Amino acid sequence: MAVSKVGTLLVVIIALAGISLPSNCVVAAKECRVKLDALISQCAKFIQIPGPPVEPSELCCEVIQDADMPCLCTMITKEIEKFLSVKKIAYIANSCKRPFKSGAKCGSKQVISDFLISLDH
């Protein structure tokens, strides 16, 4: 089963933006096999809004390889999407050779082939 990286990145952006996470999100992040400190220090700059997608660092990819992305994607809310780019998360996941499966949902987006589409019409 493909491991998604998005949820982890979501927690990173929230932490960097100074948004406090409810304790249940922190617990969920731990259950999703997140190395939060590593994720924050290694991947945050690659998923923040604004700016174009940028190739992630090798260290970020190492963190992504350990993350359970489908699990983390379930934690991405509309509020979180104000601070991080789900499209950038998908880009980084693909760049780190951990692409999302077609049909996977992350936040308000769904993966169709190599593209993300909004689930909100």
Low-pLDDT ranges: 1-7, 16-24
How many separate domains?
1
The spatial strand order of the largest sheet comes to 1-2-3
Query: Span from first to last CA?
Result: 29 Å
Annotation, overall tally of beta strands: 3
Please describe the biggest sheet, giving its number of strands, its sense, and whether it closes into a barrel: 3 strands, antiparallel
Give the helix proportion (percent range): 40-55%
* Radius of gyration, in angstroms, nearest whole number: 12 Å
Question: What's the average pLDDT?
Answer: 74
Order of helices and strands: HHHHHHEEE
Structural class, please?
mainly alpha
What percent strand? 5-15%
- Determine the number of helices (DSSP H or I, runs of at least 4 residues): 6
Instruction: Assign an overall shape.
Output: globular
Topology (SSEs and partners):
Elements: H1 6-17, H2 23-31, H3 36-47, H4 58-66, H5 69-73, H6 86-95, E1 105-106, E2 109-112, E3 115-118
Antiparallel strand pairs: 1-2, 2-3
Explain what this protein looks like in three dimensions.
This protein has 121 residues and is mainly alpha-helical. It is built from six helices and three strands; from the N terminus they run ααααααβββ. The protein has helices spanning 6-17, 23-31, 36-47, 58-66, 69-73, 86-95; strands spanning 105-106, 109-112, 115-118. It has a three-stranded antiparallel sheet. The N and C termini lie far apart (29 Å). The relative contact order is 0.23.
